Amino acid sequence: MGYWKSKVLPKIKKVFEKKDTKKSAAAAEACKSFDESKEHITKEFEEKKTELQPKVIEIYEASSVEIKALVKEPKEPGLKKHSVAVHKFIEELVKIEFPGSKPVSEASSKYGPALIPGPVFFVFEKVSTFIVTEEKSGPTPEAAATTATEEREIVLEEEKKEEVVEKKEEEGKKEEVVEKIEEEKKEVVVEAEKAEPTPTTTEPEAKVEEAAEPAKP
User: Fold this and answer.
1) Which end of the chain is more exposed for a tag (fewer CB within 10 A), N or C?
2) pLDDT digits (tens, 9 = 90+) for 172-199
3) CA 3 from centre of chain
């Protein structure tokens, strides 16, 4: 065990260190080569911008939350943590021939995205121009205010209609009450008339009638 720690393990570490050093150096060279082609990539990007926009937005919308966050705010810790998802996203950009995506994809396959942050973030920056434009193209504050005003007006109109309907219902109820009262009055009058006694001929009147009759011969 002592021999392993003192002899074998240090040699293994040196081998990996050498590999990492060579890998980092190659990655740095790839970054340098990419930097030299940035001007050409930007020119090609501007020429294809209109054609690329819907395709890029489609790829972006289908991506994970982590990738969306990296596109908007590129950070190296996130690049290391989500290197697999980053490489996959770049491969999707290669399929639509996004300028600069192919050399970045090749370098990412060899060295990993974490060792070539410059080229990866350069591509992400170009992608983000479409995303920012898409978000800005949403409703403006003026349009939102107009919409809110229209909604309030609709609500007020509905409330007015409800008030009119309620008033009509109340008036209808009042008319019904008045009609019932009138009917009850009529019934009371009729009942009162029925209850009055029929007038009969009094005794003095009968005598006057007899005196008025002429005497028979």
Assistant:
1) C
2) 666 666 676 677 666 656 666 666 555 5
3) 66
Tokens of 178: 């008045």
* CA count, 13 A, side-chain hemisphere, 47: 9
Q: Within a 10 A sphere around the Cβ of 59, how many other Cβ atoms?
A: 18
Q: Rounded to whole angstroms, how far apart are CA atoms 94 and 105?
A: 8
Structure tokens at 206: 């009968």
Residue 212 has pLDDT above 50, yes or no: no
The dihedral over CA atoms of 101, 102, 107, 110, expressed in degrees to the nearest 10, equals 130
Do residues 70 and 82 touch, judged by C-beta distance below 8 A? yes
- Is 79 exposed, middle or buried, given 0-12, 13-18 or 19+ CB atoms closer than 10 A? buried
Q: Of 54, 55, 27, 14, which Cα lies nearest the Cα of 114? A: 27
Measured between alpha carbons, how far is 70 from 121 in angstroms, rounded to an integer? 9
pLDDT band for position 3 (50/70/90)? low
CA atoms within 13 A of residue 108's CA, in its CB half-sphere: 27
Greatest mean pLDDT range, 2-11, 17-26, 76-85: 76-85
3-state secondary structure of 5: helix
Residue in the block written with tokens 């060295």: 111
DSSP 140: -
Q: What are the tokens at 186?
A: 């009529």
